[in-house]
Amino acid sequence: MFVDHAVIRVKAGDGGNGCCSFRREKYVPKGGPDGGDGGDGGNVVAVGDPSRHTLLDFQYTKKWAAKNGGQGLGANCTGANGDDIVLKLPAGTLIYAESLPDEHGAPTATPEDRELLCDLQEGERIVIARGGRGGRGNNAFKSPTNQTPREHELGETGEERRIRLELKLIADVGFVGLPNAGKSTLLRASTRATPKVADYPFTTLTPQLGITELDLERRLVLADIPGLIEGAADGAGLGHRFLRHVERTRVLVHVLDIEPADGSDPIANYETIRQELHAYSSILAEKPEIIAINKIDLLGDGEPNGEDAKTAMAMLRSSLKLGAKDQVFTISAATGAGVPALMEACYELVQKAKKQVASPH
Asked: Hey, which CATH number is domain 173-358, 3.50.50.60, 3.40.50.10890, 2.30.40.10, 3.40.50.300?
């Protein structure tokens, strides 16, 4: 099950109390203070784990707490530090700190008041709630004027926070298009291209990742974004949640059904999705795009390079006023025809996008 958002409560460990103790041994009836310090409380740590791809663990477990520090002991023994608790999160998770609710459970701040703690990257570690410091034992308070201090400190309380987690998939290529355009079929066809594949459990209602290796040294991470609908940028359907995942992709593949079952116009369908991308984010709309005219197998000769496919491509280019640099491919995700060439083009465009990010000027 894919889950891309969760709200949890985290509590770092409290520091242990310092000890008030005096050395009492045979022949040392009036030894000095020997109360040890308390141990520090454990932290709550978030880690970007490459093996995690969903926030499902945090959908059902809402409270996460680190261990408290141990109490200080006599003989100047310091209490043990509390163990950290490590939250393993998918790379691409946004971690927000929100105000804790009041005693009645009502929110004390608006969502706009939340603080972005981290945009978690693979392998990154960040402390999201810090453990309390251990209190000092009475040995720390002795002085020339106070040889037998009875003062000692209580441990500090560990931080407690309400945390909002939002996952944005990180992928090289994102498949977008209307429902039933064939995106999921294309993902399966793409990730069958080589035997080394990570094709995670699929559902048409959630974003899905797949990995294809073009050869031993070249691979692509693909994201199938569930079908967008008109009004998605305004939140229609689950538009905001789906569009959020497209933001992290380097290249878009717009999957276009050339023979829609509902009899709709492929050109109008293409323009609908482009309008939604523009409405949601101008940056999103400007991402490099490849158009994949899908379901060519339903046309007369069923060949990606056949006359019917060429006619469909010419019609699309003319209607959308596409230039020579605009890449259009004819494919059949069902049969796999034309898919390898599409993946090669995606790889080249991804590499170009990476170079532009590395040297924007």
From this structure: 3.40.50.300
